[in-house]
Write a sequence for this structure.
């Protein structure tokens, strides 16, 4: 009898059975697989966001270059890497694709330097890094002239076939059409004298808008442009850029345009842009008001 009790105690104190170990290993493998999928998806989303940020930064830099020189860099007929002439004078460093530092963003202009295209590297499409669904998830990465919808070249066809190029265009983007459609009329000339012009109507938070200033008499490198809730103090901005369109002071053009990102955290309401002097809180110009939703 004692021998049987001892055997039972020994059995109860033994380790996992083979079946229990196999079940545990299977559960761990499933959890690891789920974790890798979530991690991979998160990393890819981050790369998509970084590409959008890089292309906007390049676009803003090209506008600054044009303000300074009177034209965009010339690169006719074929796409090339972003012109090295932009750095470090107009931007600290030319970015490369977040998935591979050897992949450069692409650039092409017309012969006169008045229009341009900027693209992500075509290798991203052939390698599968960027699929149609990825482009459609970031509509601002797609040039409407390249979305296989010739009848709507000035707006993105989200139900069509997006060819895998990610373009940002110059100020006359819709003249780059494959067929059909007509370019939009040119924007009205800016008002005479110093002025600050922002968006009108209603815009969505988390998007980017154009902000232009004109004929500033004595601009300084640390003059800055910021977005404010209408009626708020100059010390309470909701986002800012120096007039070289970055948050690092540099060139100080008397007229120019910045592509200004509106934060996702903006509370819906009425906003305006202000031009402030030399890193201080004295405002010299205010744009018209616009709504954020």
């Amino acid at each position: 009898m004692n021998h049987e009790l001892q055997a039972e105690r020994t059995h109860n104190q033994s380790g996992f059975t083979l079946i229990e170990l196999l079940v545990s290993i299977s559960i761990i493998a499933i959890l690891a697989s789920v974790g890798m999928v979530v991690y991979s998806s998160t990393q890819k989303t981050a790369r998509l966001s970084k590409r959008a940020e890089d292309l906007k930064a390049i676009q803003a830099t090209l506008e600054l270059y044009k303000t300074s020189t009177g034209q965009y860099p010339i690169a006719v007929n074929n796409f090339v890497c972003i012109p090295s002439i932009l750095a470090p004078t107009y931007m600290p460093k030319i970015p490369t694709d977040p998935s591979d530092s050897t992949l450069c963003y692409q650039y092409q202009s017309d012969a006169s330097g008045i229009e341009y295209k900027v693209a992500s590297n075509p290798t991203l499409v052939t390698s599968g890094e960027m699929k149609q669904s990825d482009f459609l998830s970031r509509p601002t990465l797609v040039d409407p002239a390249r979305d296989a919808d010739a009848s709507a070249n000035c707006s993105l066809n989200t139900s069509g076939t997006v060819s895998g190029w990610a373009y940002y265009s110059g100020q006359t983007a819709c003249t780059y059409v494959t067929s059909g459609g007509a370019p939009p009329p040119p924007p009205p000339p800016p008002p005479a004298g110093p002025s600050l012009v922002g968006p009108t109507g209603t815009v969505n938070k988390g998007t980017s808008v154009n902000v232009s200033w004109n004929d500033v008499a004595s601009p300084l490198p640390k003059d800055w442009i910021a977005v404010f809730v209408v009626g708020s103090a100059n010390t309470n901005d909701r986002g800012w850029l120096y007039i070289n369109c970055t948050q690092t002071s540099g060139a100080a053009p008397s007229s120019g345009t910045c592509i200004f990102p509106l934060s996702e955290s903006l509370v819906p309401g009425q906003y305006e842009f202000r031009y402030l002097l030399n890193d201080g809180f004295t405002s010299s110009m205010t744009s018209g008001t616009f709504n954020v939703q």
